[in-house]
Predict the 3D structure of the following.
Amino acid sequence: MDSYTAPLTPEQQSHNKQSITAMVLGIVSLVVTWFPVIGLVLAIVGLTMSRSNRKFAEAHGFKENSMNTAGYVTSIVGLVLGILTILVTILVIAFGFLAFANIVHMDDLQRVFY
């Protein structure tokens, strides 16, 4: 016996499209998290889209979309990894400068440039 499913309303179609977009942004933020600013921005945009999509679903009485939940989770993970990547980048640069300062003293630099 075939089951009949009613066609989606425009609000439900919009909800599904935004859920897919939030999920894609979350996944892409995980992939490009090693580029500190890009991954962080994509994670923030994906997180805000999935949160607003949750509120939209609650206001219209829709069932929570699993793609939206996946976008929410991947965006949070991408946000945390993006923040950690930025912190690690700052630490590597700071320790690199400290190591360079310990290896090359100011007297050596004065002889090179003067």
